[in-house]
């Protein structure tokens, strides 16, 4: 007899237990499905508008408790406020002093002024909106400011970074090539204009793709709304990588290279421009020697025009005529 069909065998008992287990699992699954269906029907019967099946007021209170800042968020907020006030006052004073004092309006201070203006915009436009956005996890400022604020944030950061790069290049040129360096106010203004133009151009996508995306549909509350982009994640990644290259990698390499060359020039034994300076010094010495020779001949010419004051005889006429020449030669020797 087959052991699997023999009621007295152990194999028969194992097969029976396995069949019982499968049957019990199937009944549990059916019961769970029935319970879920009953729960869905209950939500439908109760007209639930959220996953917790609570009233809108209670649901709003739950959201508010979730986004309300914790105690450590208030500490960060106070630190940000100190940085905000000090940064605004400091950069404003730099701009005020450079613009009001005439002798402070040098080429170097023009770049410092532009850097202070960019930093002022960074603190004013970036710090507070970003702090509120990160703390409350909500964009409070509406559709128009969603585009404008993020656009100006990119512009201000770009201005600061590109100005630092321009200052690094100007310093390298002035220190390592001092005799060739010829920085003018017109050139500085042109560089600053190019910095602002490039910053406005590379930030244009922020004006196009940003919009406010609410969390809840229909919109129960403005909380948890986000300033989002409508283009694909791949397009956003390409744009962010481009910004990373233009505003971080390239300026970092440029400033690292220029300041490394400046350090080499300052620590080397050869003074920048020393060779050209030696050539110019030799030329100046030659010119001074020529000028001294000319000044030595002038008294002799005056003596020749005046003529000798002693009487001349016919026998000594040749020596009398050559007498001024001998006097001039002696002066030149001396």
TrEMBL record:
Pfam families: 7tm_1. InterPro entries: GPCR_Rhodpsn (IPR000276), GPCR_Rhodpsn_7TM (IPR017452), Orexin_rcpt (IPR000204). It is a multi-pass membrane protein. Residues 295-317 are annotated as: Disordered. The keyword Transmembrane helix applies. It is found in: Membrane. Keywords: G-protein coupled receptor, Membrane, Receptor, Transducer, Transmembrane, Transmembrane helix. Its main location: membrane. The chain crosses the membrane at residues 74-99, 111-133, 148-169, 190-212, 237-262. Residues 90-266 form the G-protein coupled receptors family 1 profile domain. Belongs to the G-protein coupled receptor 1 family. This is Orexin receptor type 2-like. It comes from Priapulus caudatus.
